[in-house]
Every structure is written in structure tokens, then in C-alpha cells.
Write a structure and sequence with these properties.
Shape: rod-shaped
Number of strands: 7
Structural class: alpha+beta
Helix content: 55-70%
Number of helices: 9
Distance between the termini: 28 Å
Strand order of the largest sheet: 2-4-5-7-6
Radius of gyration: 37 Å
Strand content: 5-15%
Largest sheet: 5 strands, mixed
Length: 342
């Protein structure tokens, strides 16, 4: 449908240009002594032959250049141009018999007319080459953009598939830790996890979801993670009570939340975890801050791909429309994400 529309626009544009070229001589001759025969002999006949040269090249002959048949391109063009010049001169000789008067010694030689006409007919040849080259470049650019989009979607899909097992792995680790000392909480965790996995199955296989759905998912995950916490750890959430109708890519903030639970909990020391989201017009600010208890190399409670996955997805989904910062402040690890959604 798009190609057909572009083709119709191209045909209309060509028709309009030639219509203007044919009517310009008539417009400039208004008020002069020139008649329609003069316009035909001196302007329209030449335009007709120029159009023949242009479309012969535009539609057919220019292909010789791209097929590496440049010699054939020049031979056929030269033959066509010389034939048209000869044909034009024959028409002129019929319409203006005095042109063939041998006593007219002031008349320039025929070779000069052929040379000048050949130069004139090379103009539509050059135009046809330029236009086709422009179309080739545009098509190549469109194919490159399409290839980049396919690559982008493939990479995003790969990152999403990478994220879901990572999320599932961390959740199972959490449930495993509850089985021995809190089996009831473990059962509740499994039930909560099933709801979260339902969200992962049905809500994340789309480019965007509503921000309210993403916040609901975060709340459920935080509740799940909080089941195994002791009184030593306090979790605070500060999400907007009223969430505007905004669309974002799914699973953008879950890696930061996972990271906070992974590195912000100690079995013996007091720890705090804070999650905060602010919405300022079209911008979303998400902040996670947690007590900093770095894991040792022996700790295998996560694959470590979460935050790196997030950075890659932000670069792909929101180029030049996001910020990600993380730093330590008073023994608190703070991760901040800002997204511009428009």
C-alpha cells in the first residue's frame, strides 16, 4: 500500500513537471508574434525528444550502469541521441524547406548542430542517473534502517529472555531459603510467584505496558521478597497513589529492585531498603537505596546480569531519553533511573 502510494506520488510529480515545462513557452510567448507552429518547432518538439531520452534512461538504460555494462550504456545512449537529432532535423527540413537551401553559406555546418544537440540531450541523461542514484541511496538507507530495527528487536527479545530466567532464579532462591524455617511462608511465596510469572508470561511480550501495571508488578515482587526478611530489615515504598496513563517498556525497574534485595540485606545487621517513584510530566524517576552489604565471590544468589541488562535495554529503548546513576552515600547504595517517555 505504501509503495503504491509512493508510485502514484512519483507519477503525479513527473506529470506536473512536464506540464509546467510544456506550458512555460506558451506563457512567455503571450503578446508576441509567435504562433503555435513556432512553439512546436522551437520548443515542444525539443521537449518531446528530451522526454524520450530522459525516460529511456530513467526506466531502462540506467540499469546498464548498475549491471556493470557502462560501455553499452554510452553506446546505446549515443545511438539514441544521434537518431533523435537526425529525426528532428528531418522534421525541421519538412517544416522549414528553406533550411536546405545550398546557397545559404552563412549557415553553420551540420556537425556543429549535432554536437550542440548532443550536449543538450546529455542533460536528461544526467538527470536520470542522478534521480536513480538518489533512489538507490534512499532504498539502501531504508533497508539499513529495517535491518537495524530487526537487529534491535532481536537484541531486546534476547535481553528479555535473559531477564526472565534471572528473575525466576532469584525468586526460587528466596523461596528455598524459607522452606526449612518457614514452610507456610514458602507456600505463600510459591503462590505469589505464580502470579508474578503469569505477569511475565502475558504482560511482557509487548513493546509497552501501562505504568500502573508495572507498579503493581513491582509491589507484588517486593511483597514476595519481604516474606523472608527478619525484623532487622525494613522495606519502604513510596510510589504515586494516582498513576497517570503512561506507557513504558515492561520490566524496566525489576533489576534494580532485585539488586537492592540481593545486596541490601544482612542476617546480623540492621538494614534498610527504600523504593521511590516520582512522575514529573512525561518523566519517570525511580530510585532504589539500600544498605550496602556486597556479596562475596562465593555467593551464587544471582547471575549478576540484572543491572547490565537494564543498561543495555535503556540504551536500546530510550536512546538519549534516559539516565542511570548508581553511587554510595553514607554506606547506602543508591541507584537512580530517569526515563522520558514521550
Amino acid at each position: 500500500m505504501v509503495n503504491l502510494k509512493n508510485k502514484n506520488v512519483e507519477i503525479s510529480l513527473h506529470f506536473l513537471i512536464w506540464l509546467v515545462l510544456f506550458f512555460l513557452p506558451a506563457a512567455f510567448s503571450v503578446g508576441s508574434d509567435a504562433d503555435w507552429k513556432d512553439l512546436f518547432r522551437h520548443f515542444w518538439l525539443q521537449l518531446i525528444f528530451l522526454a524520450v531520452v530522459f525516460y529511456a534512461n530513467y526506466l531502462y538504460l540506467v540499469k546498464y550502469i548498475y549491471d556493470d555494462k557502462k560501455v553499452w550504456f554510452f553506446v546505446v545512449n549515443l545511438s539514441l541521441i544521434l537518431a533523435l537529432i537526425f529525426f528532428k532535423n528531418q522534421i525541421f527540413d519538412i517544416l522549414e524547406p528553406h533550411r536546405r537551401n545550398p546557397s545559404d553559406r552563412k549557415r553553420p555546418p551540420a556537425s556543429l548542430f549535432y554536437f550542440m544537440d548532443t550536449l543538450i540531450y546529455m542533460i536528461p541523461v544526467a538527470f536520470s542517473i542522478a534521480i536513480n542514484a538518489g533512489k538507490k541511496i534512499q532504498k539502501a538507507e531504508e533497508m539499513k534502517i529495517e535491518a537495524d530495527n530487526i537487529k534491535l528487536q532481536s537484541e531486546l527479545q534476547h535481553l528479555k529472555y535473559q531477564l526472565q530466567p534471572h528473575f525466576f532464579f532469584n525468586s526460587l532462591n528466596n523461596i528455598y531459603s524459607l522452606i526449612d524455617f518457614a514452610p507456610d511462608k514458602a507456600k505463600q511465596s510459591i503462590h505469589s510467584l505464580s502470579k508474578l510469572m503469569r505477569h511475565l508470561l502475558y504482560k511482557t511480550d509487548v513493546p509497552t505496558i501501562s505504568l500502573s501495571e508495572e507498579v503493581e508488578f513491582l509491589n507484588k515482587y517486593i511483597e514476595l521478597m519481604s516474606l523472608r526478611l527478619t525484623d532487622n530489615t525494613k522495606v519502604y515504598t513510596n510510589f504515586p497513589k494516582t498513576i497517570p496513563e503512561m506507557k513504558i517498556a515492561p520490566l524496566l525497574f525489576i533489576s534494580i529492585v532485585e539488586n537492592a534485595f540481593k545486596h541490601g540485606i544482612s542476617a546480623t545487621q540492621h538494614s534498610d531498603i527504600h523504593f521511590k517513584m516520582e512522575i514529573i510530566e512525561t518523566e519517570i524517576h525511580f530510585t532504589a537505596s539500600n544498605s550496602n552489604f556486597p556479596k562475596t565471590d562465593a555467593d551464587k544468589s544471582g547471575s549478576g546480569i540484572g543491572v547490565e541488562n537494564l543498561k543495555k535495554r535503556l540504551n536500546l529503548l530510550y536512546p538519549e531519553k534516559h539516565e542511570f546513576h548508581s553511587h554510595l552515600n553514607n554506606e547506602m547504595y543508591i541507584a537512580e533511573v530517569k526515563i522520558i517517555t514521550n
